[in-house]
């Protein structure tokens, strides 16, 4: 029969583990949830008296305020967390491998393996171990092999795959009312029992018909597939945006018309300067790697093109800026508004803004960056990583981090909107215009400005997916 879960441990207090388990604690007052991490600074931040949490996510602070100290705890004592739990989420990072076989494509499973081995070494009673990190297919199988090879008498492990579909910026909303919860298990009686135990946890607040139970491998592949297909929609619309710019059609109108077909659907058709985030590119490259390992080169090529289109979109946008500014931006000041990979997050992983700034710096422009949430140290780190051969003194000389959008735009020749932060929709453009060099250009990579209004003020406006005259 299914075990009733009383204690949950989550290994990894990051973007996935933190919000997910905080919401579980909020919704399941009868379950004790302990989130553990090796990173002391991160745990300190989760525990900070003034709720200065390590990640920014609308609504998260409120959830943590309600549950922390009640049935939600954060700790660096990984072993104690493992020992006490009936169910363990493994929610550690799975970055793309930087060296060795599959470098640049395959996921680095070192962290998953270390965490799994720790569970095997420390556990003194049976556990349900839940793979929560995004990992390529069959990781659960490797975790199972490690756990089974190390299980003691009275100490059995059941492995589940429970991929997380939350998007950053809307994580709490997504967790509170998910489209679906997916749980994969072995189709054995024990596997199905473990699956039922986890389903009961979610059933505290998720309607039963939204909890899907499938095989272990289907669950893992579904996560990669969901992200690949979402990214593919963006690359498709971005490919069409290039046609619009070359012909005078308007991508907004095209996307609207296409999205009205209920078979296509209207969501995720916003043309942009390119998708970013920790998942899309990584997961597609995983799918490419998986396809190649399975000797399916046509399938690999198909998915790879989604990432290539995204790279093209970013390059194309920075080239359009240079072309429009009379083919040179050397010594010109460019304001880049937004550095996060999307609005409502401080996360910059794979952000299109990084590529844009790198290109502008390479063209020897002066760049002012403003983002309402990204910490300054993070911007410097990202730029250093994006330009490994450029001396940091050069980067520091060409790049300025500004305290506000207005400040960033002062004395600039051009304003580039890279992230769709709400506050950029209400910028005082009259004041911005007065402070800029003329002609003053605006490049909207997120389709958020009122083009007519800006043109009336005097701006030359270029919008992604629009080909008409400035
Ligand atoms: C994504 C998936 O949405 C989520 O289900 C999964 O669990 C993790 O990966 P996330 O990366 O947090 O979530 O954000 P998402 O909203 O999907 O945006 C990803 C990127 O695509 C952002 O850079 C965003 O600006 C861009 N995007 C999104 C577009 O350019 N156009 C769109 O229409 C939608
Ligand atoms: C299509 C468009 O649907 C329609 O809007 C347009 O006006 C004309 O082209 P049609 O070709 O008549 O219509 O049929 P459709 O139902 O779209 O199917 C096209 C092909 O796709 C068929 O061979 C169908 O079997 C196949 N298909 C469709 C799939 O293989 N899988 C699906 O999920 C859907
Ligand atoms: P994600 O976006 O997948 O949540 P993050 O990098 O934000 O990824 O978070 C993963 C967290 O997992 C990091 O804080 C890292 O310190 C932690 N971590 C990695 N390996 C282990 C481990 N073996 N034990 C405990 N925590 C770990």
UniProtKB/TrEMBL annotation:
Q: Has keyword Oxidoreductase?
A: yes
Its pathway? Nucleotide-sugar biosynthesis; UDP-alpha-D-glucuronate biosynthesis; UDP-alpha-D-glucuronate from UDP-alpha-D-glucose: step 1/1
Query: Do the record's keywords include NAD?
Result: yes
Q: Which residues bind NAD(+)?
A: 12-17, 37, 42, 92-96, 133-134, 168, 279-282, 349
Question: Per UniProt, what is one Pfam family of this protein?
Answer: UDPG_MGDP_dh
Regarding protein family, the annotation reads: Belongs to the UDP-glucose/GDP-mannose dehydrogenase family.
Q: What is this protein called?
A: UDP-glucose 6-dehydrogenase
Organism of origin: Gloeophyllum trabeum (strain ATCC 11539 / FP-39264 / Madison 617)
């Amino acid at each position: 029969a299914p075990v009733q879960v009383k204690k949950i441990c989550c290994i990894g207090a990051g973007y996935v583990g933190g919000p997910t388990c905080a919401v579980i604690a909020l919704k399941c007052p009868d379950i004790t949830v302990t989130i553990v991490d090796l990173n002391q600074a991160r745990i300190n931040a989760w525990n900070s008296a003034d709720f200065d949490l390590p990640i920014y996510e609308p609504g998260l602070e409120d959830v943590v305020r309600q549950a922390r100290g009640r049935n939600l705890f954060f700790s660096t004592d990984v072993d104690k967390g493992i020992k006490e739990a009936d169910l363990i989420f493994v929610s550690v990072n799975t970055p793309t491998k930087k060296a060795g076989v599959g470098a640049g494509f395959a996921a680095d499973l070192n962290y998953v393996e270390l965490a799994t081995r720790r569970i095997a070494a420390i556990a003194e009673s049976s556990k349900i171990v839940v793979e929560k990190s995004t990992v390529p297919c069959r990781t659960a199988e490797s975790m199972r092999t490690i756990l089974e090879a190390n299980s003691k008498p009275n100490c059995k492990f059941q492995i589940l795959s429970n991929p997380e579909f939350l998007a950053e910026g809307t994580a709490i909303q997504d967790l509170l009312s998910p489209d679906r919860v997916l749980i994969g298990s072995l189709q054995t009686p024990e596997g199905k029992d473990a699956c039922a135990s986890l389903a009961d946890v979610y059933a505290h607040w998720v309607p039963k018909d939204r909890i899907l139970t499938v095989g272990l491998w289907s669950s893992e592949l579904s996560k990669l597939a969901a992200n690949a297909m979402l990214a593919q929609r963006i690359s498709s619309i971005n490919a069409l945006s290039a046609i619009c710019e070359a012909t005078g059609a308007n991508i907004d109108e095209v996307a609207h018309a296409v999205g009205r077909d209920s078979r296509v659907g209207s969501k995720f058709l916003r043309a942009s300067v390119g998708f970013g985030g920790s998942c899309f590119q990584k997961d597609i490259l995983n799918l490419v790697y998986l396809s190649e390992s399975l000797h399916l080169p046509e399938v690999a090529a198909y998915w790879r093109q989604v990432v290539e289109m995204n790279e093209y979109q970013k390059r194309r946008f920075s080239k359009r800026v240079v072309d429009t500014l009379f083919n040179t931006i050397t010594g010109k000041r460019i304001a880049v508004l937004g550095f996060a990979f999307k609005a409502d997050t401080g996360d910059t992983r794979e952000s299109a803004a990084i590529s844009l700034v790198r290109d502008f710096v390479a063209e020897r422009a002066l760049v002012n960056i403003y983002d309402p949430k990204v910490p300054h140290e993070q911007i410097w780190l990202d730029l250093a990583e994006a330009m490994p051969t450029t001396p940091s003194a050069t980067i520091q000389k060409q790049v300025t981090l500004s305290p506000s959008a207005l400040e960033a735009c002062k004395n600039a020749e051009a304003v580039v909107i890279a992230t769709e932060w709400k506050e950029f929709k209400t910028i005082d453009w009259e004041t911005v215009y007065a402070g800029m060099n003329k002609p003053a250009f605006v490049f909207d990579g997120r389709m958020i400005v009122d083009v007519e209004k800006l043109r009336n003020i005097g701006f030359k406006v270029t919008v992604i997916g629009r080909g008409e005259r400035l």
